[in-house]
Amino acid sequence: MTTKLTIHSFRLGRAARTLVWGAALGGLGAAASLSAQSAATAKGLEVADQSSVTALERLQVVSTATRTERLLSEVPIRTEVVTQEDMHMRGTFNFSQAVELFNGVRVESTCQNCNTSEVLMLGLGGAYNQILFDGAPLMSALGGVYGLEQIPTAFVDRIEIVKGGSSALYGAGAVSGVINLVPIQPLRNGGFLQAGVDVQKGEPIWLADGRLDRVFAGGKGGLSLVFQSSQNDPIDYDGDDYSEITEKELGVVGAQVWFAPTAKTRLRANYQYTWEERRGGNRFDQPEYLANIAESLQTKYHRGGVSWEQDVTADFDFSIGYSFAYIERDSFYGGLGDVVTDPNAPGYDPDELDPTIAGSAASDSFGQYGYTEDPLHYIDSQFNYRLEKHAFAAGIQYKWEKVRDYNRDFLGKTLATFVDDSFSNVGFYLQDEWTATPTLSVVLGGRVDKSSELDDAIFSPRVALAYEATPTLKLRASVATGFRAPGVFDEDLHVDTLGADQIRIRNDAALKEEQTITGMVGLEWRNDPANATWGFDVTASLTDIDDTFLLGPTLTDPVTGDLYQVRSNASGSRVEGVEANWVYIPNSQLRFELGAAYFQSRYDEAEDIFDDTDVGGTTIISTRDYLITPEWSGVAQAIWTPMPEFNVFLGVKYVGAMDALHNRLGELRRTPDFWVVDFGFTRHFDTGKHHIDVTLGVKNLFDERQKDLERGADRDNDYVYGPRFARSFFITAKYLF
Description:
By secondary structure, the chain is mostly beta strands. It contains six helices and 38 strands. Strand 22 and strand 23 form a beta hairpin. It is globular, with a radius of gyration of 26 Å. It starts with 35 loop residues before the first helix and ends with a strand. The model is unreliable at 1-59 (pLDDT under 50).
């Protein structure tokens, strides 16, 4: 006997939010197995004849695409999901590691000194996507610099990705899509403690995290407390006494509380505090200004929010939320350059290390410190009204951010103000999710945004279609417009260095907004809707950008001698590509996944990316291709569960060749391609009331990484590409209670 579950409403009950049923295909990119939290949830769900419920498809509940709770298989805009168990199986402790489990998504390091990174998606850089925490865009300009590694996975139930700008519910800057970190809402008392170590080049990276869940008020409320910490010494890959992995200490604590005083009212609040110190370069036993190169950051990061969700009638509900982020950062970018710091080496001059002597190298580096403040406030509202075939959503969103960036010396004295600006955007959106026929869904929407950096408001229309051609075949298509306003961006607040010289960014006086349009078309196919064992999806996309923002060559100020780059508008650019995924589940013990992505990202006209003629050189390099953007990438994985006590994971990630600029030598180089192989093994110990998971494995088994790393005091920190980490061995132990 088989019980079929049918859900007619647009909104699911809260009891189903974190439920994962079985190992079927639904999202085609999500893992198959039940997490401990989900299994506990399933035990408490009242379903007639539970013993006979079979996994017709993955009944993962998602909310990002339409911001209403929908089954993954029924959402009209394609959504991809990675669950907490997926992250644990691969030994991921933070967001920057977990998001790389998606096909077509890469995290690229952009600095050899301090390991800052960005998420690339749909062939576009991190500036073109929005990272959300429970639907709120709390990744500010400064938060985007190092924040990817400061988000613990302990607080995250799942990560949802919607590629492209199909939904009008998100800001016009979400050109390549949104990445939403959905927190856990506990339905039972419990939690976990986890500790592990990841060893690279003989250096351990110590990791620990945990969560405590409590449900109270007869199941009407709950509380989660979370923490994470990590610590490691600097790691030097090539033996030149300069780090490739920063020395780092990180601590995160947070809390989330929810309360449903009535069946129609839900209140939630969350808060996280992050403290991090990281430093890269050399001479770690000395103050930064006495290092040949140092990039050093001390960050305090507060973020949180409150929300109110109210069901007014069976057909009308609304939500109102306020979120905030506040960051303080002390920084140092620079150093002594090629000054000899070893007293026993030829050319040593102690006067060069004395900051009190005018004109000495130390007197310059003494003043290369900084202090940055970045408060952000976000107000969001959504009103939903449902008719028989329509689900209307409307709302107002307001975002305000202020950036203050000061130059200071070692003693904390302010020397100059680099940035003191505020930015705001108010947006109104309207969207209709129309079920035209039982097999055709249409999402029509648009938003009007008024940015403080633009004279006029901008209208961004969007449309998406989902058509169930047959019970096994679903077709999707979408067109979305958007824009990106001038302002202060994360690359402005991470200061590049060439040797020990800072490179700062200046906006062109005539800089105007980018205008974008993205079209996507795709299909999803399953061999059997009632008992799917394998499936396939493919999506083609095209993004056209007018007045693309472009960072020009590194120039020298003729008055001050400072290095700088100018952000101006290029003629435009075009990104076209295709992603394909294949999933095969022959039985309950095996699961295979394969994904490949191809993107060609090019400017409409060749743009100058290197020009040394301002300092007497003769070289100008121009290209139409985006830098550090491979055309081909892919992921593959196999999960084997020979018995309930064991899981075995094998993963392969492919990163294709790309163009990289060697700024110090004035060369445009073609990088090699990389095949990164990860292997992991998990042993489950179940004592009845408690559960222990022990996972061990190896990441980047064949040590596939950049081999022509810059060396020494004159290194170009921006010349970095490919896999971020060397081969490492890891072991973690997780105690669930």
